[in-house]
UniProtKB/TrEMBL annotation:
Example GO biological process: protein secretion by the type II secretion system
PROSITE patterns (UniProt xref): PROKAR_NTER_METHYL (PS00409)
Membrane-spanning segments: 12-35
Location of the protein in the cell: Cell inner membrane
Record-level GO cellular component terms: plasma membrane; type II protein secretion system complex
Source species of the chain: Sulfitobacter albidus
Protein name stated in the entry: Type II secretion system protein J
Length: 181
C-alpha cells in the first residue's frame, strides 16, 4: 500500500514535532553540561591563581628585605630568621616565622609596637637554613663555634603548605654578603 500524499498546507506531523523537540533537548543538555564544566574549571583555576599570587608576593617581599639587610645582623633560631634592615628613619628588625598556620613578617622599630604582616595562610611548617662563606649549611645562626660573627652568604626557606598532598616550596636567596659569589 502506498501512503496517502499530504497536502503542502497540512504542516508537520506530531512525530516530527516530538523528534525535533528531543533533538533540541539533547543539544540543550549537552550545552549545559559543557557550561557547567567550564564554570567549575574556572572557579578552581581562580583559586589556584590567587594562591600562586600570594606565594609570589610573599617571596617578592622576602627577597626585597633580604637584599636590603645589613651584613652581620642575621640571626636564625627556632626556624625564625631575624635581621636588621635600614630605613629612612633608622633601622628596623625584621623577623620571618611560621606560627599558627601563617607565615608572618614581623617588623620591630624602636619606640613603636611590633607590626605583624600575614604573608601566607595555610602553612604547615617553615624551615630556614643559612650558608656560611665555606658553603656549609647551618640550622642556627650565627654558628655556635664561631669566634667572630660572620655574615651569612645565602638563606634557604622551605615552606610546606597544607594541601592534599602537602606541597613543599623551597627557595634559595643570595644574601648581600654572598653577592658576586
Amino acid at each position: 500500500m502506498s501512503q496517502p500524499r499530504r497536502e503542502p498546507e497540512a504542516g508537520v506531523s506530531l512525530i516530527e514535532v516530538l523528534v525535533s523537540l528531543a533533538i533540541f533537548a539533547l543539544i540543550g543538555v549537552a550545552g549545559l553540561a559543557v557550561l557547567n564544566t567550564v564554570a567549575r574549571t574556572g572557579a578552581r583555576t581562580d583559586g589556584r591563581l590567587e594562591r600562586l599570587a600570594d606565594i609570589d608576593r610573599t617571596f617578592v617581599i622576602l627577597r626585597r628585605d633580604l637584599l636590603q639587610m645589613t651584613g652581620a645582623s642575621t640571626q636564625l633560631q627556632d626556624n625564625a630568621l631575624q635581621f636588621a634592615r635600614p630605613i629612612d628613619e633608622g633601622i628596623v628588625i625584621v623577623t620571618y616565622i611560621a606560627r599558627d598556620g601563617v607565615f608572618v613578617r614581623r617588623v620591630a622599630r624602636a619606640a613603636s609596637p611590633d607590626v605583624d604582616q600575614r604573608l601566607l595562610e595555610n602553612v604547615q611548617s617553615a624551615q630556614w637554613r643559612t650558608m656560611d662563606a665555606a658553603g656549609r649549611w647551618h640550622d642556627s645562626w650565627p654558628p655556635t663555634a664561631a669566634e667572630t660573627i660572620p655574615a651569612a652568604h645565602a638563606a634557604e626557606l622551605s615552606v610546606t603548605l597544607r594541601a592534599d598532598p602537602p606541597e613543599t616550596l623551597v627557595r634559595l636567596f643570595a644574601l648581600p654578603a654572598g653577592q658576586g659569589r
